[in-house]
Amino acid sequence: MTDPTLPILRSVEAMRAQTRAWRAAGLTVGFAPTMGALHAGHASLITALAARCDRVVASVFVNPTQFAPGEDFDSYPRDEAGDVAVIARAGGAAVFAPPSEALYPENEATRISVAGPALELESAARPHFFTGVATVVAKLLIAVEPDEAAFGEKDYQQLLVVRRLVRDLCLATHILACPTARDPDGLALSSRNAYLDASARAIAPALHRAITDCAQAVTAGDTPRAAERAAVDAILASGFDAVDYVAVRDAETLAAVPDTALEREGRVLAAARLGGVRLIDNVAAPAP
Ligand code: AMP
Fold first, then answer.
1. Which secondary-structure segment (H or E) carries 281?
2. Which is nearest to 250 in space by CA: 197, 200, 205, 286?
3. Is 149 helix (H, G, I), strand (E, B) or coil?
4. Tell me: the pLDDT tens digits for 110-153?
5. Which residue from 44, 53, 57, 163 has the fewest beta carbons nearer than 10 Å?
6. Count of alpha carbons within 13 Å of 97, Cβ hemisphere only?
7. Which amino acid residue places its CA nearest to atom 11 of ligand 1?
8. Per-residue pLDDT at 1
């Protein structure tokens, strides 16, 4: 049910006071960080948390440090009223929507850089990206102090980076992974899908089809490099402009796997460009 009184907290102090008041009342707190332009994928994180925690906070913050100059920070879709309605409907109890200065005060000089799962893949095309993500996620978790925070498998490399960050910084929050919400034709929901025109939207599901075929091939015992090449060919043949990567990796560490039948659970991750939009997706590849 929509709660018209859903509070919107604008400062770290107000956010922290809210969490501490809940906790003092014996309530547990779940947290879903987002950049807004919310869709059913974001809502699924809030719903999953609402089933596990007494109160759920979602943040709406377009994080400047994870965009490079020339990326879409200025044009990133923003719709706070629509976002608050989605959060309320999904079972959220509060919205954390701080201005940029609340998380990045004047003369701020601190960044958090993660190696391990942050290396390669997304970092090849966006070398600034995971330092921005790790920095803002650490700030958000310190501000909100949640018992649990939910992240989507849609951004699988990000999920592993966040898990490593939380472990390495001894943060007390449990990280909950949520499955990727998709349109019926397989396209992973993304705020950036709004940039696809009709012809690009018709081509876009080919990315998910190709990595699903790739995963099935390696699970059937095909070698990873041949399966990756077949996926790249299929994505390009379907009308994508370029493929940044299709990679079969270890599902737990994202380490490269040898070109032999998988011995442990794998993950197929891909990024490709279509009509000026960069789409990412990934699927599980169980070992044969
Ligand atoms: P974003 O607003 O894109 O930064 O995403 C905020 C959170 O929502 C991240 O944990 C994402 O992984 C998650 N998310 C985005 N799209 C989806 C999706 N289609 N299914 C599940 N989770 C998603």
1. strand 277-285
2. 286
3. strand
4. 999 999 999 999 999 999 999 999 999 999 999 999 999 999 99
5. 163
6. 16
7. 152
8. 44
Written as one letter, the residue type at 246 is: V
Task: Determine whether the shortest distance from the Cβ of 67 to ligand 1 is under 6 A.
Answer: no
- Whether ligand 1 lies within 6 angstroms of the CB of 152 is answered as yes
Average pLDDT over all residues of the chain:
97
> Annotated active-site positions, please?
42
**Is there an atom of ligand 1 within 6 Å of 35 CB?**
yes
Contact 246, 121 (CB under 8 A): no
Q: Residue 181 C-alpha to ligand 1 middle, in angstroms?
A: 9
Contact 133, 161 (CB under 8 A): yes
Report helix, strand or coil for 192. helix
The verdict on the CB of residue 249 being under 6 Å from ligand 1 is no
AA identity, residue 275: G
> How much is the average pLDDT of 48-61?
98
pTM: 0.97
Using N-to-C axis directions, what is the helix angle for 224-237 and 206-219, rounded to 10°? 160
For residue 181, which atom of ligand 1 is closest to its CA? 20
